[in-house]
Amino acid sequence: MRFRLTPRETSFYDMFAASADNIVTGSKLLMELLGADTSARAEIAERMRAAEHAGDDATHAIFHQLNSSFITPFDREDIYTLAGSLDDIMDFMEEAVDLVVLYQVEELPKGVEQQIEVLARAAELTAEAMPNLRTMTNLTEYWIEVNRLENQADQIHRKLLAQLFNGKYDAIEVLKLKQIVDVLEEAADAFEHVANTVETIAVKES
């Protein structure tokens, strides 16, 4: 790590950790959705919406701190990118839950639970990694594993698309379900964007 002669603003680390912890909350709500009756989904969606709003608040707090800080712990552009990518994850997870409710989906296709399990694992890894930005240690395994999980998510997504287009579902149902599984895939991509940004930061700081 480079030796620095000037102090650094440290509250960013706490804000990134809080944002990642909120993503874990979102991933747990996704898991809860899987086992819920259709009658309980609207309430889960409401809690997910609240979590998404909390994520927005966390992102705005980071941007406000960035705009008011003369000294930052690492490059301003990287802080902006990391905060925005964390926010994207919550947006995609909230959108997926909202679509399930709005489209009144009776049963999600087999394989969606695997998508959500990947997201839940990526959320845990991301939450564990954020505090390590403070020392830039124990991060390599994090971004390697998240990239592996994203590759796994790609495979699951392709299998789900094949399942949706096998003739079992009518055309309208295919459109509904495809949008849901596509948004979950975008969440997996967003986790990878976070991991790639962390790798970029670590390389610059080494």
From TrEMBL:
InterPro entries: PhoU-like_sf, Put_Phosphate_transp_reg, UPF0111_domain
One Pfam family it belongs to: PhoU_div
SUPFAM superfamilies for the chain: PhoU-like
Cleavable signal peptide: none
Family label: Belongs to the UPF0111 family.
Name assigned to this protein: Phosphate transport regulator
